[in-house]
Automatic annotation (TrEMBL):
Domain ILEI/PANDER residue range list: 106-189
The name this protein goes by in its record: ILEI/PANDER domain-containing protein
Gene Ontology CC annotations of this record: extracellular region
Chain ranges passing through the membrane: 12-29
Gene source species: Hemibagrus wyckioides
Source species taxonomy: Eukaryota, Metazoa, Chordata, Craniata, Vertebrata
Amino acid sequence: MNTGRIRHKELCLAVTFVIIIVFIFGFLLKETPQQEHAKYVHGMESSDCVSPALFEAYPGCCPHKVCPADHFPFFVRSGAANAVGPKICFNNRIVMSGGQSNVGLGVNMVIVDGETGNILRSDFFELITEGLLDILKTIQKGNIVLVASYADPSIQLTDEVRELFAGMGSSMVYSVKYRDSWVFAGAGGLNKESPFEKLIVNDQKTNAYGDWPEMGELGGCFPRKV
């Protein structure tokens, strides 16, 4: 009889433990109101359009832009809070996006051959991962560089990294701080201010998503082989 009671008690404890674990995981995975709002406003990209029709916009597609023959069209959008991933488009096609599952928290970057328009590299550098500095050092003069932040880019932006971005035309990289939204398009060896950059400061008084500011986006026509 005592053995049966002990087993029953052990079973009850095991069931209780499982319920507690399930509750904890459910709580941790539950999205905050700010995350839900960001996804609602900007949509969750489950798929991306590769070739949107001329002058027409579709959810998840790159805004289609016609540029002079000696320029490349591009579009860069930062992430929204830590819920909706960034997007980087070049030559009217998506290179990185949440829909393609090739973006990450931190700094997202695409490197392009400035003469041919070929994509040389696309990668993301998460909050505590290494490698961004080494990649920046390999960028050649004339390579086009497109950058989009997601959640918090500041951890990756060491003094040396900021200096290299400044050499590519960034005038705002020294001002990027915790959880700011930052988008930038420049080029290796530019050594003058790029007109393609936007910084939205993290400020609790003006933030769109609680602890995060509104996403930043920019687009235009980037000159070939500057």
